[in-house]
Amino acid sequence: MKAYHVVGQAPMYTNTFLLISDAGHGVVIDPAAAASDYNEILEKEGASLTHIFCTHGHFDHVGAAEELKAKWGAKLWCEAADVENSQFFPLKEADSGYEEGEVIQVDEMSFTVWHTPGHTPGSVCLLCENYLFTGDTLFAGSIGRTDLPGGSSRQINDSLRKLAALPIPAEAQVLPGHGELSTFGQELKNNWYIKSACKGALS
């Protein structure tokens, strides 16, 4: 497997990622960059795009989804709750949503999916080996906003407690939708929002 960090367009500079299997099948997570950015890497690697995984449906995470799907015939995954054909949720349709805890296999790459609503109703996190794609649920030292349409501070606290309890390796890289990269162990130890959510569950 090869992994690429592709930064989205200004002014959001969304973190997006392209994984390519040993057999040459590509997976884009949160296609916010220009479609040409992914196409250039895929063509250089002699690979084809087969899967597009959206951690949620906000406009700054899905900008190239439909163009990439049209070019490559890739299957587009996004929760139905985040597919509205609206200003904040521009996707008109998706091929599939996610089942809680399901494992999506792409050659040697296994993606385990958990629902983590709070930033949006359809937010998910995906773990592939030691890569944890958290979208706008979890940032390095912070979390995503809950004051946008569909956001919920109660739900994101529930999602943070859920993440903290999952069998995610401490060394797993946290690959968020925005900002710096981190590790899951660092976030469990230092992220005030996770610590506060877990403490609140015990009080």
Q: Can you identify the CATH class?
A: Alpha Beta
Tell me the name of the CATH homologous superfamily.
Ribonuclease Z/Hydroxyacylglutathione hydrolase-like
* Spatial strand order of the main sheet: 6-7-8-9-12-13
Number of strands: 13
Poorly predicted runs are none
Given helix and strand content, the structural type is alpha+beta
Compressed to H and E, one letter per element, the order equals EEEHEHEEEEEEEHEEHH
End-to-end CA span = 43 Å
Q: Write the CATH fold name.
A: Metallo-beta-lactamase, Chain A
General form: globular
Mean pLDDT: 96
Write up this protein.
- With 203 residues, this protein is α+β, with helices and mostly antiparallel strands.
- The protein has one domain: 4-Layer Sandwich (Metallo-beta-lactamase, Chain A), CATH 3.60.15.
- 25% of the residues lie in helices and 28% in strands.
- It contains five helices and 13 strands.
- The strands form three sheets. Strands 6-7-8-9-12-13 form a six-stranded mixed sheet.
- Strand 8 (124-128) and strand 9 form a beta hairpin.
- Helix 3 (153-165) packs across helix 5.
- The chain is globular, with a radius of gyration of 16 Å.
